[in-house]
Amino acid sequence: MTTLQHAPAARRRTRRWLTHLALIAGTLVMVYPLLWMVGGSFKDESDIFSQLNPFPSSFDPRNYIAGWTATDPTFTRFYLNSMLIAVLAVAGNVIACTLTAYAFARLEFRGKKVFFAIMLGSIMLPAHALLIPQYVLFFHLGWVNTYLPLVVPKFLATDAFFIFLMVQFIRTIPRTLDEAAMIDGCGKVRIFSRIILPLTGPVLITTMIFTFIWTYNDFFSQLIYLSYPSSETVPVALRRFVDATGDSSYGQLLAMSVLSLVPTFIVFLLAQRRIVEGIATTGLKG
Q1: Membrane-spanning residues where (predicted)?
Q2: Model confidence over 162-215: pLDDT tens digits?
């Protein structure tokens, strides 16, 4: 009888150990490329691809020093460009998406359901299907080789994902608060600024974080619209270290790639709890 009682417990412990081993193995598979990149940034050019061991024999910062000043302009300019675009994109998304979400969640107007359905449908459109029409439009506006194609659409509420996220969050706020404010004489604008906006803090922070990370890491759009070296961003500038027809500086490329991860890593590390809180409190009720 005792043996039979201990058998299920032994099987549970075995399954638990197997689960932990599988998670550890998966973690190593996911972390190894990052360790290889960081370790390779401290290695000599000849040792990067000849060793499977991601850890360097010595930590030599020469690749970081040479990589930072290897281009003209230096990476200081590229970082400033990336931060400028990311900050403007965050401001545009927060302002435009919040106003649009408030209209969909609280206001009544003709065609509201149709416009909301169109907005949701735009999420399903692949970005590459819109690339040529958008480029033609921005070209005729004279915006190519400027930051305007990367920033102005953010102020026009083009990110439907964040609008939908905010709409779902605002719908969880009791309408009795709106009604009480209306009795006190508040209009739609004051209800939005005094009641709705302060209560949407978690979803606003989530929008800011994801907008910053996605904009900062965006390579394709910035490659299409930015051609002048002085206006390039960090993701676009990294391709300068890889020459398809000649010599490539992989050590400097890995070093600058490590540094390019620092802003997003810091943002995610500091705001990790806010991201989970913002998504968890969004709600799913209509």
Answers
A1: 21-39, 78-102, 114-138, 150-170, 191-216, 250-271
A2: 999 899 989 888 888 888 888 888 888 888 888 888 888 888 988 999 999 999
248: exposed, middle or buried (Cβ count in 10 Å: 0-12, 13-18, 19+): middle
CB 42 within 8 A of CB 56: yes
Q: What are phi and psi of 283, to 5 degrees?
A: 85, 160
Q: How far is Cα 217 from Cα 260, in angstroms, rounded to an integer?
A: 9
User: What's the token pair of residue 19?
Assistant: 């689960």
Q: Which DSSP letter does residue 125 get?
A: S
**How many other CB atoms are found less than 10 A from the CB of residue 286?**
8
Q: Which helix (H) or strand (E) holds 114?
A: helix 112-124
Task: List all residues 6 or more positions away from 84 whose beta carbon is below 8 Å from its beta carbon.
Answer: 147
- Going by C-alpha positions, the residue among 106, 115, 96, 133 that lies closest to residue 224 is 133
What does 227-273 look like in DSSP terms, one character per residue? -SGGG--HHHHGGGG--TTS---HHHHHHHHHHHHHHHHHHHHHTHH
Q: How far is C-alpha 150 from the geometric centre of its chain's CA atoms?
A: 14
Domain locations along the chain: 9-59, 71-283
pLDDT, tens digit, for every residue of 61-86?
A: 888 988 898 888 889 999 999 999 99
3-state secondary structure of 49: coil
What single DSSP character describes residue 141? Answer: T
For the full predicted model, state whether its pTM sits above 0.70.
yes
